[in-house]
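[step 3/7] fold_predict: job queued, chain A
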Amino acid sequence: MMAKTTRFDAADYLDSEERQVAYITAALETGDADFVRDALGLVARARGMGEIAKNAGLNRESLYKALGESGHPEFSTVMRVLGALGLTLSARPVPVVRASKKRRVA
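[step 4/7] structure written:
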């Protein structure tokens, strides 16, 4: 007898606004454009892609394509999706990691 499995969908775990915001923030902090695109897509699916597309002024199919695995959304699309999610971008300085000063032993 084969064990029955269900398909894993990360969007199922992004079940609160707090988790969604934390996930997108973490993606943005990596600087990885593909990760940001994927995070936006997951959160949009978690909230309902049709509703996000409507609020962003985009059609649903275009949004799926832009946020899909091979999508390269324009920055304006990213900004529209963030707005539809009730989010905005902000900037802050990158923390500077200072090298520890090693004491020389004479």
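[step 5/7] annotate
The helical segments are 17-30, 33-47, 49-56, 60-67, 75-84.
The chain has five helices and no strands.
exit 0
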